[in-house]
Amino acid sequence: MPELPEVEVTRRALTPRVVAGVVREVCVREHRLRHPVPDGLDALLRGRELLGIGRRGKYLLWRFAHGTLISHLGMSGVWRVHDAPAPPPRRHDHVDLVFDEVVGRLTDPRRFGALLWHSAAAGEVENHPLLAGLGLEPFDPRFSGAWLYAGIRGRSAAIKQVLLAGDVVVGVGNIYCSESLFRAGINPKLSARRLGPVRCERLAQAVREVLTQAIEAGGSTLKDFVSAEGAAGYFMLDAGVYGREGETCRVCGTVIRRIMQGQRATYYCPHCQRH
DNA sequence: AGCTGGTCCTGATGGC
DNA sequence: TGCCATCAGGACCAGC
């Protein structure tokens, strides 16, 4: 269930352990992820130095001189780092990136994740079809109320669904979407075109705050997150609304509601988010 | 059994 | 009318 904060925390946890390492072997045990894992990764990466790990939205970008390994965790994916040699793979351990001292292992029970190769010869990785349509990063200085306003104006769908779509701003998954709207005091059912510049400003701010806090909360569990022992759970220590149907709002005491929007659950406070 | 999670694609709809 | 952007829904999975 990784959203942007979990992916960012993963990136930060992986970086000191694998960056500058040289790949000795890539072992793909299961190709059937969200997109098929390409053949030939082992030949492609063997002997190559990992230069860095970046992130775009929820995609991790493993940079090599000759291209980028793009990984997405889907809903159940986890990267773990083991000291070499890694223990025997278990069910759902689909890929190993073997370095001299450590092994990065991708585990993904539901196989909604992805692992793809983008050759430097094909141009900037930003232009990869999966990345090209993504909205602005929430921590990009260009992301603002004005950007949000420009991006959602005229769109008739509910603000919850427009925000979730990721073509205006990335990284706001189902959980943090509910949380951001709660923090901004905006009704998730409201048509996006009803939002003016003032509420867009509040929402942009709320998105940044919610994600920042989640990353910080995840940072406190950083050591465990990529340890061999396994993943930390979810970061959100105390949700304002998510998962709190029937409980009372921490601000006003009203009972939190759960509704379905596009087959996804949305939680909100009917009083704090009246309009 | 039904529900959950995040894209990505297809086909439908709406506005100009 | 056609074109384009947007929208809704289905598909992909395993675990509880």
Strand and helix layout:
Blueprint: H1 4-18, E1 25-28, H2 41-45, E2 52-56, E3 59-64, E4 67-72, E5 78-83, E6 93-98, E7 102-107, E8 114-119, H3 129-132, H4 145-152, H5 159-165, H6 174-184, H7 197-219, H8 222-225, E9 257-261, E10 264-268
Antiparallel strand pairs: 1-6, 2-3, 3-4, 4-8, 5-7, 6-7, 9-10
The structure holds a DNA duplex (16 and 16 nucleotides).
Describe this structure in words.
The chain has 275 residues and is an alpha+beta fold. The chain is 28% helix and 20% strand. It has eight helices and ten strands. The protein has helices at residues 4-18, 41-45, 129-132, 145-152, 159-165, 174-184, 197-219, 222-225, and strands spanning 25-28, 52-56, 59-64, 67-72, 78-83, 93-98, 102-107, 114-119, 257-261, 264-268. Strands 1-6-7-5 form a four-stranded antiparallel β-sheet. The model is unreliable at 227-233 (pLDDT under 50). The structure holds a DNA duplex (16 and 16 nucleotides).
Short note summarizing the structure:
By secondary structure, this protein is α+β, with helices and mostly antiparallel strands.
